[in-house]
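Hi,

Apologies if this is the wrong queue. I'm a grad student, and the batch job for Folate transporter 1 from Phoxinus phoxinus produced an output file that my downstream script rejects. I'm not sure whether the problem is my script or the file. Here is the sequence I used:
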Amino acid sequence: MVEVIICNERTEDSKEEMRTDVNGHTAENVAPESVIFESKEDLETQTQKTSSWIWSVVYLCFYGFMVQLKPGEPFITPYLLSTEKNFTRYQVTNEITPVLTYSYMAVLVPVFLLTDYLRYKPVLILQSLSHVSIWLLLLLGYSLLEMQFMEFFYGITMAARVAYSSYIFSLVPATVYQRVASYSRSAVLMGVFTSSVLGQMCLSLGNVSYMTLSVVSLGFVIFGLLLSFCLPWPKRSMFFNQARLEKERKEAAQSELARINPEKKDGSVAALGSNHNSLSWANSVFVQMLKELKNVVKVPSLRLWSLWWVFNSTGYYLVVFYVHILWNKVYPATENKHVYNGAVEALSTLLGAIASFAAGYVKIRWNLWSELVIGLITAAQAGLLLLMGLTGNIWVCYVSYALFRGFYQFLVPIAIFQIASSLTKELCALVFGVNTFLGTILKTVITIIVVDKSGLGLDVHSQFFVYFFYFTLLTVIYLGCSAFIITCHYRNKRSGQDATEVAIATELSPMASAASDGTTAHNGASIKT
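Support response: The file is valid. Your script probably expects a header line. Output copied below for reference.
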């Protein structure tokens, strides 16, 4: 009550001060018109900004959906192996497809850096131009070199995916990052699903040729290129444009101060701009984030999930790159309508989306059980790879592949959350970039040794046995680490319980000794003997 009275007294005093000016004349207790107008203008500006980024997100999601509409993509490998192109399985497996991995590694770092430096849009335009180049080469090219160039441009499109995934964060406030990220991801998945279904329907029901399907895909990617030119241009990025934005803010503050108080222009303005020249490359956000990376590896959860990202994504993409060749060898269909690559890709995409959604509802102690969960899922993936390598039934291959992708997609959002939850947005992006690059290096090394004709040049069935042993080795490592961590946890827990019991006994023993040492007089007083 005292605090309320004091607050009321202060409020009344402030009201009286507002009613009386310095000369003792009373004034109306109302806000100045300029303040009201400024509030209205601020509200209108805020509403316009919100409306602006909402429409930008809608357009970007529409763009993300449309650029995924390539109904001929699941059928590129059958097209190359068909009589229309007439490449051999050895050429596709050991000479054409490996170029994708090499291209991806070569352009990943430049594209990652240019994405932020150029503020996303130019890289998305480059990605769309690469899409157009892929389908033009696929339609017009017939030589081995032209198909290798096609895979080179495919590597550029894969590297440029980072531009789309990070572009949306430059358009919206930080409070809605998670929501808009889910929108953009859903748009991409819906585009892949729709594209695969459309391609399968055209092939199985419309009985169109691979060439016609490629023409349709070319039309869609040209439309995506036109959409990329209309994308909004972000005003900020995460790493390289922070200094420029800081300079603009300081210049704006200087001009405002000079306008309000011209006589202090030479003093205060110079003070505001005194630190501008200290901005340099050494002080950029990017370099500071690189210095922080050494602390990331010291955190057990970040280290575990980063290693999972490097090693498991390597095996996952190797399987994705070569599984269509395996299907063609297991079941070399004589008619195009019996090739179900599009349906399987659509099913696996849908299953992956469901698995990613379900992962958000898994509530366990990840700091204790992460290695065990990863180990069990990796073991299941190894079993599926062995099944794909041994079976001669194409339907078993299809189902195994869909489950393999579903298991991987289940762990992806968990890994993203475990890594991103304790990092800033900028450092998180850099960690994922480094993890992806390390995974690409490992993937390139395996491709050179196992797939490339200059290495072992294994056929596709032998490759899948190598991938099986790769995932088996990872399983042994994960489960071994899990057994060690769980054992240590319960051993420490038991030791803690024993220590607690000893502490309790220690606390009780002085009371017992005091009771035995003292005697009680007839008046109730304790007397030392």
